[in-house]
Inverse folding.
């Protein structure tokens, strides 16, 4: 039982990271019906930019200055990425989704061109603090992940529920045709979702890297868990993405410990297949009837 509790705690922490990635994927899908397969590559580029601004590649800034500058750059990068596929969005969901694969490969190539293919480390500027609460070991990193995730999701909730662009986002997500008839700018809403997803990807990548390493493919590989979380929660549910991330985090920890750690990707694919067969719209999908 002590092992189970410790694994569940670690799964909640890692699940928050998956949730951050999943929310970005769901945001874009809800507004434009596009599954952004470039999300991991874009998040990886963001992490490398912070590394470049702090480690001397582009300068030796403070961590705060590097993050703020990277945020501004990622707004521009996400806007350019959306503009590249914008003509395709209204033609075919499948075509625009496939186009994101191409964008991901281009972004990965740019990352390798700028920073090389070497593995680097990028640590968070956190105090070296640890505590033990029964079977649970709590570190400053764990609290940072939980705190940043809570703040990010809270701000996103306020943005969507309390602002005009958020209301427009909800309207477009519910009925794009009616929203266009009412005069809403669909491209503006799409751009909003891409930019917010990119900023969430930056935050997620900065929290992910200290648990592993930073390379041109590490963050995009990590986003496979985020994709699974989006499938579990449903691509049309932001709360589902958060719960799906925590579920995947706990499940992967338990399976890796009690069965075998080398089959993590296999577990993920099996989970995705099972959910798609049992809950095609996600476990939080609202099931309702239709009137005849």
């Amino acid at each position: 039982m002590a092992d189970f509790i410790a694994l569940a705690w670690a799964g909640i922490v890692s699940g928050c990271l998956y949730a951050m990635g999943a929310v970005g994927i769901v945001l874009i899908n809800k507004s434009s019906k596009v599954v952004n397969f470039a999300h991991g590559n874009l998040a990886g580029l963001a992490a490398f930019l912070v590394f470049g601004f702090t480690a001397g590649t582009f300068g030796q800034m403070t961590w705060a200055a590097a993050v703020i500058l990277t945020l501004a750059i990622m707004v521009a990068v996400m806007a350019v990425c959306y503009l590249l596929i914008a003509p395709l969005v209204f033609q075919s969901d499948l075509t625009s989704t496939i186009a994101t694969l191409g964008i991901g490969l281009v972004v990965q190539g740019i990352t390798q061109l700028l920073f090389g293919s070497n593995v680097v480390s990028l640590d968070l500027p956190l105090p070296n603090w640890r505590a033990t609460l029964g079977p649970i070991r709590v570190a400053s990193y764990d609290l940072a992940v939980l705190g940043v995730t809570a703040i990010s999701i809270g701000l996103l909730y306020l943005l969507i529920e309390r602002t005009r662009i958020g209301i427009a986002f909800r309207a477009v997500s519910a009925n794009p045709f009616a929203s266009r008839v009412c005069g809403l700018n669909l491209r503006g809403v799409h751009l909003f979702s891409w930019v917010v997803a990119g900023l969430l990807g930056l935050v997620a990548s900065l929290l992910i890297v200290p648990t592993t390493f930073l390379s041109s493919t590490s963050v995009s590989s990590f986003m496979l868990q985020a994709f699974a979380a989006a499938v579990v929660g449903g691509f049309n549910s932001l709360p589902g993405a958060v719960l799906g991330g925590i579920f995947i985090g706990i499940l992967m920890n338990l399976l890796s410990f009690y069965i075998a750690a080398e089959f993590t990707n296999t577990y993920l694919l099996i989970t995705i297949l099972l959910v798609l067969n049992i809950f095609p719209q996600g476990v939080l999908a609202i099931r309702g009837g239709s009137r005849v």
